[in-house]
Amino acid sequence: MSGLPFPGGTSVTRLRVYELGPAADGLDGGTPHLHTVSSEAYVVLGGAGAVQLLDRSGYREQPLAAGDVVWFGPGTVHRAVNHGGLDLLVILSNRGLPEHGDAVMTFPDAVLADPEAYASAAAPGEEPPRARRDLGVEGFLALRDALLAGDGAPYERMLDRATALVHPLAGSFAQQRMASVGADEALGSAALRALAAASSDGLGALAPRASRLEGSAYGMCGVLQRLDGD
């Protein structure tokens, strides 16, 4: 192996959750969305807020304060809500997939059903994406209210729409996953084989690597700083 992969093949991003002004329900924060392949974790660095979650078991809201950690899997809709200065370290599995096609925002069903309309609504701009956030919240609130009323059909339909939107990328995702998770797995497997053989030949053979959280990009939930290369 020529280089040292990031542990677990994960991506690491600092996220300062948006303060765009209140959405339709009076809450500030990011655009609700789900990931079709990747799991995600929030490590709260500072500030206060919450993450609102939708899955097949219903709706829940998890308060967030410094030191809290929450994580969730593919298909769980999550909405970061900012009560003031919410600052997160976000860890996502499958480095290279998140923010590159794995995510689907919870726009209203008519938008999700039309790939061209979805692409237009989801396109990043050069300004903080308040209109995109508000459209995502519109769809999110409809899904939440249906789940709270005991109707899971809109959520199931949204999962089907998300799958249809991302399905064409599945082949490239497999290649990206092999380059991240696969590289980490190969390193660990080689180390275990060497240990079982009582061999220390591979230990210390890979040079340490260093990077920084750099940049300032508008993401779905806030202003992002990523490790270079993400």
UniProtKB/TrEMBL annotation:
Tree of life domain: Bacteria
Cupin type-2 domain boundaries: 29-88
Signal sequence bounds: none
Record Pfam families: Cupin_2
Protein name: Cupin type-2 domain-containing protein
Species classification: Bacteria, Bacillati, Actinomycetota, Actinomycetes, Micrococcales
